[in-house]
Structures are given as structure tokens and as C-alpha cells.
């Protein structure tokens, strides 16, 4: 809760420092919101009356106090009980008044801070309590700034890093090396963030690879198990094959040993008998034909002698008998040859089976070696798996794992972002100092879009470094010496028309001029005066970019021994014309009510800068060419009081404790106040000087008229 309130107050302070009417209104709303969240301050709870005491004294108390209090309360009815009460009743103080909640000093500080800020706002003071004088209307926005924001991708709700570019108290040349060192530190932060990102990714990659190795080791173990199983199956297959070959070897060996079986011999004998019978049959036929050839055919009577064909048939039968004999012998020999060839084949098959058995035995031995190797590979794979698991557990449990680098990355990213915010504020302040010293508020060097959230803001420091280098180069090329001028003024002469009642509706003719100034000092202790543009244009018309180098005051007064001047000079407002613009000069004259009503010059406030360093003040002590400094050092790293602000300005000279006797004596002997203004300017050329000349002439004419009208009164007061 307190952090949220502090955030609201810090946001309001940031708006308060912008010193614009819109920003002040928004800051007031934030302060009121924070105050409403705090609620009213209970005065009784904000005072601590606790005193330290020993535990022995704290334990010595009357334990009947609370019960006595309860018995003393009469019966309460619902209508007697209020709807609500302010605060919480502390009944425990009745029983043990020594033990109580401490006073929350942080909340009390928040109340005090809010009361102080709201008081400054209501009394038209700055955040640090200085007088505040704001223009009625702010300078128009630069459309180029809006275009830059649009090109940079900034939306209405975009996050704006870096604080408001407030002009620092140190000069640009003093700020630049410090900001460059800060940017170098930011670059180192960015490199560290990048390193942590790489280390985090590397450690995550190591764990990922090791998890893959662990998974692959499981596959390796499974593959080795399957390889061992496959080797065993192959060995069993080889053994089965050997058994088949052995069986085949025995089979052929048995066939070889039997050679020709009894059935085959019986068949051969039967075939031989059949052949013999066929041969005998053929021989019988041949004999029949032979007999038939030489035996006549008789059938009761004889016809001729013998049959000649019977001899041919007998010859054919003889040949048939010979052929059958040869056939039987050939078949017999063929059968024997087949049996011989068959035996040779059986011998060959036996030899082949023997050789296969030898080969299979060798293969079985080789398979045994392979199984042993597979067992060894399995042990190696299991060992590798166990080691991979142990290493993976180490990677997961090690202190320098991804979790550590992620934590370091988050911490470093937070520091990097905060460093970027701080360094960007310094860069913008340096840029504001560059603009402040050169009078160029349009040129920008520092990019607002250097930070990329989706890339952790990497290379943001390099972008700022480039902007600083370009800024330094532009400063060396453009920081030319300007006109150094001195303007000495007499407040007695400047305020010769001073009339404290001029702003009143019922103003009457009274004391004016220096006498009125002294009366104002004696009564109120302060006097205001303006250094208008016409004062400087009377000397050098056509000048622009008038910036103060220093302002000193001298008091022609009689002082006693060891007596000093006690006064404070406050710059209430300043204006600077950045470019030679007649409309800008006319705007300055209009702000001072020195522009003719019928003037046809078009006002142009685009090139005016108001109050770059508002409400600066110095204390005056010596009273002789007093700059409000112990030692005037133009080479100081910090700006001198009022340095760089507009020479066209408004001032408040105040004397503390004005009603005291020493101060009244100073006022009685004060004859004048000499203001010496040292400032820089740029000549706008003869054309601008000729254009400004009518404005100066109009002011001199009005002063002449006022001098004519006030002469009788001044003669009456004895000032002439």
C-alpha cells in the first residue's frame, strides 16, 4: 500500500517539475487521490509516548483491570450503539498498556509530504518552495516532435522511459564525459545480459542433449539385448542345421553301406528271368519257323514242297533272340552303372555333409564369440546409460544450472532496465543542456526507441553512445562565440513610474516612483521588476537569443561596521527568442504590454522558450557588484546563477525580516539599486533591426508621454 502511495507521489512530483498548468493540475489530482487513500490523520495515534521498560516491570500489573472494566459497563441496547465510530478501540491497553502498536512513521511522512506539496500548489510555489510564475498559455507543440514519435512507433499509451529532460545544473562539457561513462556501464550491463542469455541457453542445451543421450542409451541397451537374443537364435539355428546335416550324413552313409538293397537284387533277378524267358520264347519261335520252313504242309494230300518265308521268319526270330540277349545284358550293365553312380553320389553327399558339419561347427564357435561380444556390449551400454543418468542428474541438480542463469538474467535484466532508465535520463538531461547552451531546442540526438522489449533492450547502450557522439560532434562544430554584452540598469530609473495602486480599480493618485518602491520595501519587504525586450532593443535592436551570463546587484547604502546586506534575488520568469522572428519579438512586447493595440504584426510564439530553469535565486550579502557567489568562476562545471536563462525576464527582490530595525535603516539610506546584466546575444541582421525599430520607437513615445504626465508629481515629491 505504501509503495503504491509513493508511486502516486513520485508520479505527481514528476508532473510538478514540468511546471505547466496541465501538468500541475494532473499532479494535484494524484496528490488528492493519495491523500484520500490515506484518509484523515488521527492525531492521537500519531504521537508515541512509549518508554522502554524491563520485562519484570511489565509483568507486574493488576490483572483485574479488564474484568473490572467489563463489570462496570451497563447493559447496552441496539439503539444506543452508534452506526460507526472513528478508529478502532484499543481495549487491550486496559489490561496491558505497555504493549501497543508502534507509530508508523512512514505513513506520517506520507501525510506530511502530501500536505507540503498541496500547500505549495495552493500558494503558487514550486516543488521546493520558490515563487512560481507561469505563462497563461503554453508554447504550441512542435509538429516535428509528434512526427518523430509516430515514426518511432510510439502510441498514446506507450511507455516513456527516462524522466523529463530537465536542464541539469552542470554544463554540457561537464556532463558529457560522465554520461559517456554511464553509457559505457550500460553497454557492459547489456553485454552481461547477453552473456547470461547465452549461458542459460547453453546450460539448457546441455541438459537437452544429455536427456537425448539418456534416451538413446536406453535404445542402445535394448538393441544390445535384441542383438544377444538374435545371436542366441542364430546359434540355435546353426545347431539345428548341424543336426539336419548330421542326419543327412548318416542317411547317405547308411545307403552307401547297404549299396544295393535286397529288393533291388530281387528285381534285377526277376528282370533277368523275364529277359531269359523272352529270349527262350523268341528262340522257340525261331525253331518253329525253321521247322516250318523245311516241313511240307500236308492236309490229306501234299501241295508242293517247303515254305520259303519260314526261313525269313526264322532269321528274324534269331535276330530278335540276339537283340533281346543284348538288351538284357545292356540293361543289366546299365543298372549296375546306375548303382555305381548312385554310390558315388552318396559318397559325395557324405563328404559334403561332413564338410557342412565342420563349417557349422565353426559358425557355432563364431556365434559363441559374437554372443560373448554382445554381452560385453550390453554391459558397456548399461554402464553408459548409468553414467548418462548420473551426469543428467548432476546437470539437473548443479548450482550453475539454467535456473541460476535464469535468475541472474532476470536480476540483471531488472538492473539493466533501471540502468537504461537512469542513463537515458542523463542523456536527455545532457541533450537538454546542449540545447540550453546553443539555443537550439529542435535538434534531437538521443533516440527514445532504443529499448526493444522483445529483445531484452540489447544494443540500447550502443544507440545512446551514437547519439552522444553525434551530439559532441555537433557541439564542437556549432559552439561559436556569441556577442558578449553588458547592460547596467538603475532600479530607481527603471521603476520611476512604479505605482503600487495602479492595478486597483479605485486607484487614487498617491506616492509613485522610487518613494513608492521604498514604501513597498518597508511594508512588504519585496519589490518586483521586469527587464523587457525593449530595454535591450534600445541598445541593440535586432538581437535575439539573449541569454544571461550573470546578474549582479549593487546597493548604494550606508552600512554600519560589520553590517551586511540581507536580500534575495529571485528570477520569476524568463523568455528567450531562439530565431530572428519579428512575430517572436512582437510577442515579447505584447507580454510586456508594450505593443501598440493597432499593431498589424502577427504574433509568433513558436520560437520562444519560457522559464527553462525557473525560480532560481541567490542571496546577496556584500551589496557591491554582488553575484550571490563567494567566488565568481566562469570556468565552474556548474552553471552560474541565472546563466543561460532569457535576458528578457521578471525578478523579485526580497529582504527577509523587512520590519526589523537593521533592515529599516537600510531602506532609509537606500538611494538606488544598480543592476548589471551580462548576457550573450546573436545579431539578427539589419532587416530584423529595421523591423524592430518601430516597436522601440513606440515604447519610447509611451515613456515620453508618461514622463510628461508624472513630472508634476515627481516635483511635488522632491525627486526632480
UniProtKB/TrEMBL annotation:
<dbReference type="InterPro" id="IPR040840">
    <property type="entry name" value="TcA_TcB_BD"/>
</dbReference>
<feature type="domain" description="Tc toxin complex TcA C-terminal TcB-binding">
    <location>
        <begin position="363"/>
        <end position="681"/>
    </location>
</feature>
<protein>
    <recommendedName>
        <fullName>Tc toxin complex TcA C-terminal TcB-binding domain-containing protein</fullName>
    </recommendedName>
</protein>
<dbReference type="Pfam" id="PF18276">
    <property type="entry name" value="TcA_TcB_BD"/>
</dbReference>
Amino acid at each position: 500500500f505504501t509503495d503504491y502511495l509513493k508511486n502516486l507521489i513520485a508520479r505527481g512530483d514528476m508532473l510538478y517539475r514540468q511546471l505547466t498548468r496541465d501538468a500541475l493540475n494532473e499532479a494535484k489530482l494524484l496528490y488528492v487521490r493519495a491523500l484520500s487513500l490515506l484518509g484523515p490523520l488521527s492525531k492521537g495515534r500519531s504521537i508515541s509516548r512509549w518508554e522502554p521498560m524491563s520485562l519484570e516491570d511489565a509483568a507486574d500489573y493488576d490483572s483485574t483491570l479488564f474484568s473490572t472494566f467489563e463489570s462496570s459497563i451497563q447493559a447496552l441496547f441496539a439503539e444506543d450503539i452508534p452506526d460507526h465510530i472513528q478508529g478502532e478501540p484499543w481495549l487491550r491497553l486496559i489490561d496491558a498498556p505497555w504493549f501497543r502498536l508502534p507509530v508508523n512513521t512512514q505513513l506520517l511522512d506520507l501525510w506530511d509530504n502530501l500536505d507540503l506539496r498541496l500547500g505549495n500548489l495552493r500558494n503558487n510555489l514550486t516543488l521546493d518552495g520558490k515563487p512560481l510564475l507561469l505563462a497563461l498559455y503554453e508554447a504550441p507543440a512542435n509538429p516535428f516532435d509528434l512526427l518523430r514519435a509516430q515514426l518511432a512507433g510510439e502510441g498514446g499509451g506507450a511507455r516513456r522511459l527516462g524522466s523529463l529532460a530537465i536542464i541539469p545544473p552542470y554544463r554540457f562539457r561537464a556532463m558529457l564525459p560522465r554520461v559517456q561513462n554511464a553509457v559505457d556501464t550500460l553497454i557492459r550491463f547489456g553485454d552481461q545480459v547477453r552473456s547470461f542469455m547465452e549461458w542459460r541457453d547453453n546450460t539448457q542445451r546441455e541438459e537437452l542433449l544429455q536427456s537425448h543421450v539418456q534416451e538413446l542409451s536406453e535404445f542402445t541397451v535394448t538393441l544390445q539385448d535384441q542383438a544377444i537374443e538374435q545371436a542366441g537364435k542364430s546359434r540355435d539355428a546353426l545347431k539345428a542345421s548341424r543336426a539336419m546335416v548330421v542326419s543327412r550324413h548318416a542317411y547317405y552313409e547308411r545307403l552307401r553301406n547297404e549299396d544295393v538293397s535286397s529288393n533291388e537284387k530281387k528285381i534285377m533277378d526277376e528282370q533277368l528271368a523275364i529277359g531269359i524267358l523272352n529270349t527262350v520264347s523268341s528262340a522257340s519261335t525261331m525253331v518253329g519257323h525253321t521247322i516250318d520252313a523245311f516241313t511240307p504242309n500236308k492236309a490229306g494230300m501234299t501241295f508242293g514242297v517247303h515254305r520259303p518265308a519260314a526261313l525269313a521268319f526264322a532269321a528274324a526270330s534269331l535276330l530278335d533272340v540276339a537283340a533281346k540277349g543284348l538288351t538284357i545284358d545292356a540293361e543289366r550293365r546299365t543298372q549296375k552303372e546306375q548303382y555305381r553312380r548312385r554310390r558315388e553320389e552318396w559318397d559325395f553327399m557324405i563328404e559334403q555333409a561332413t564338410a557342412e558339419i565342420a563349417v557349422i561347427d565353426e559358425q557355432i564357435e563364431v556365434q559363441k564369440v559374437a554372443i560373448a561380444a554382445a554381452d560385453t556390449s550390453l554391459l558397456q551400454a548399461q554402464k553408459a546409460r548409468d553414467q548418462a543418468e548420473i551426469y543428467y542428474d548432476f546437470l539437473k541438480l548443479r548450482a550453475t544450472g539454467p535456473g541460476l542463469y535464469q535468475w541472474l538474467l532476470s536480476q540483471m535484466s531488472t538492473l539493466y532496465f533501471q540502468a537504461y532508465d537512469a542513463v537515458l535520463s542523463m542523456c536527455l538531461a545532457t541533450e537538454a543542456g546542449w540545447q540550453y547552451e546553443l539555443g537550439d531546442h529542435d535538434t534531437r540526438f538521443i533516440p527514445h526507441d532504443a529499448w526493444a522489449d522483445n529483445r531484452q533492450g540489447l544494443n540500447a547502450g550502443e544507440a545512446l553512445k551514437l547519439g552522444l557522439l553525434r551530439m559532441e560532434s555537433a557541439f564542437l562544430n556549432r559552439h561559436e562565440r556569441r556577442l558578449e554584452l553588458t547592460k547596467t540598469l538603475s532600479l530607481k530609473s527603471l521603476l520611476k513610474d512604479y505605482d503600487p495602486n495602479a492595478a486597483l480599480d479605485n486607484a487614487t493618485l498617491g506616492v509613485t516612483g522610487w518613494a513608492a518602491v521604498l514604501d513597498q520595501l518597508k511594508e512588504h519587504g519585496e519589490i518586483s521588476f521586469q527587464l523587457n525586450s525593449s530595454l535591450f532593443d534600445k541598445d541593440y535592436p535586432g538581437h535575439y537569443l539573449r541569454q544571461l551570463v550573470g546578474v549582479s546587484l549593487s546597493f548604494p547604502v550606508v552600512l554600519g561596521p560589520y553590517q551586511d546586506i540581507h536580500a534575495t534575488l529571485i528570477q520569476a520568469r524568463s523568455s528567450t527568442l531562439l530565431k530572428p522572428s519579428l512575430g517572436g519579438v512582437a510577442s515579447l512586447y505584447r507580454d510586456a504590454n508594450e505593443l501598440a493595440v493597432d499593431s498589424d504584426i502577427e504574433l509568433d510564439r513558436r520560437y520562444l522558450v519560457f522559464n527553462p530553469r525557473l525560480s532560481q535565486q541567490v542571496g546577496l550579502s556584500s551589496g557591491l557588484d554582488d553575484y550571490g557567489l563567494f567566488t565568481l568562476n566562469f570556468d565552474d562545471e556548474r552553471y552560474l546563477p541565472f546563466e543561460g536563462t532569457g535576458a528578457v525576464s521578471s525578478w523579485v527582490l526580497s529582504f527577509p525580516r523587512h520590519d526589523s530595525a537593521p533592515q529599516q535603516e537600510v531602506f532609509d539610506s537606500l538611494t538606488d539599486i544598480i543592476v548589471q546584466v551580462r548576457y550573450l546575444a546573436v545579431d539578427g541582421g539589419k532587416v530584423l533591426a529595421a523591423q524592430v525599430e518601430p516597436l522601440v520607437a513606440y515604447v519610447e513615445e509611451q515613456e515620453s508621454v508618461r514622463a510628461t504626465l508624472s513630472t508634476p508629481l515627481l516635483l511635488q515629491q522632491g525627486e526632480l
